[in-house]
Design goal:
By secondary structure, the protein is mainly β. The protein has 2 helices and 16 strands. Strands 3, 4, 5, 6, 7, 8, 9, 10, 11, 12, 13, 14, 15 and 16 form a 14-stranded antiparallel beta sheet that branches. The chain has a two-stranded antiparallel ribbon with strand order 1-2.
Length: 310
């Protein structure tokens, strides 16, 4: 977009509810407000992309060119389930089974920054959840804001999140975990030309309770103009044997670990978020504490889905 065109779009997007309080409600964001409004800034994993096969036919660049003339309305749903079998207490020969699930559905309004196609501003609607304890707290998130920075190839590098002041900690935490969980599985594009049937590999290091090397293999199933159909397979391997217990300084030893999955996405080169897409990851791990004869066994599943809101 030219400087003059950007200026016109910015001007069109600024309306005034009073002469002193302009409201930025245009199709693109007049400024990257999330960079200056006190939002919490969260680094996202760097991604290394390499083309495995260029595909068949004429290779064309996957040029990302965000449309500043329209906003994107999408809904993100994430769900994570963990089932554990663990000793009830030190010295006990009994085990207990625990199951936890976190599920969140969040409507998002995404607007590219008018003069910066690498920055995206997000308006957050009221999330919903199957968790009956969490659900009543989520309405306070309605109207929260966020921002994303992108590197080449539609790869997110930073999340900026600003929940409403009225939102309580469980609601804030669930929103942050959902967004980060989805962005950790963002599908990056190669910066070299490819044809239908092409495959590329994206490798990133994801730090959580267990730090893992994530390898994503992407296949360009088809291309129609700026719209790409992509299939993905994902595998993860721990970089070491350390499992840091969340909310504690304690650590366990990872003796076995597996996590893999598949998915498919529709990506529009004029948008920075997927148009639609699903991914399901499943796996398990064996964790050892003070007693090597009494390991903790866990089964894990993570799913995400992007859907058009309108």
């Amino acid at each position: 977009m030219s400087t003059a065109a950007a200026a016109l779009v910015v001007a069109a997007g600024l309306t005034a509810c009073s002469s002193e309080e302009p409201v930025d409600d245009g199709p693109c964001a007049a400024t990257a407000a999330s960079k200056t409004n006190g939002a919490r800034s969260i680094n996202l994993p760097d991604t290394q992309v390499s083309v495995v096969s260029p595909g068949q036919g004429e290779a064309k660049p996957l040029t990302v060119s965000p449309d500043a003339g329209t906003r994107q309305e999408v809904t993100l749903e994430t769900s994570s389930t963990e089932a554990s079998i663990a000793p009830t207490a030190k010295g006990s020969d009994k085990n207990e089974v625990q199951k936890t699930q976190q599920q969140l559905v969040t409507p998002l309004t995404a607007r590219i920054v008018c003069d910066d196609p690498t920055s995206l501003e997000l308006g957050i609607g009221a999330p919903t959840s199957k968790d009956t304890d969490l659900a009543p707290l989520l309405t306070d998130l309605d109207g929260s804001t966020a921002g994303l920075s992108f590197a080449a190839g539609m790869s997110p590098t930073r999340l900026r999140l600003k929940p409403n002041d009225s939102a309580q900690s469980p609601a804030r935490s669930s929103l942050e975990q959902s967004l980060i969980g989805a962005l950790d599985y963002a599908v990056p594009l190669p910066t070299t030309p490819v044809a239908p049937g092409a495959t590329w590999r994206a490798v990133r290091t994801v730090s959580a309770a267990a730090t893992v090397t994530q390898t994503m293999t992407v296949t360009l199933v088809s291309r129609k103009g700026d719209v790409l159909d992509l299939d993905v397979t994902v595998s993860e391997e721990p970089v070491n044997s350390v499992f840091a217990i969340p909310g504690s300084d304690a650590k366990l030893h990872i003796s076995r670990y597996s996590m893999s999955g598949t998915g498919s996405f529709v990506v529009d080169l004029r948008r920075l978020l997927p148009t639609t897409g699903t991914l399901t990851m499943k796996g398990g791990r064996e964790l050892v504490g003070d007693d090597p004869n009494r390991p903790i066994l866990q089964q894990n599943e993570f799913t995400l889905a992007w859907k058009k809101s309108k």
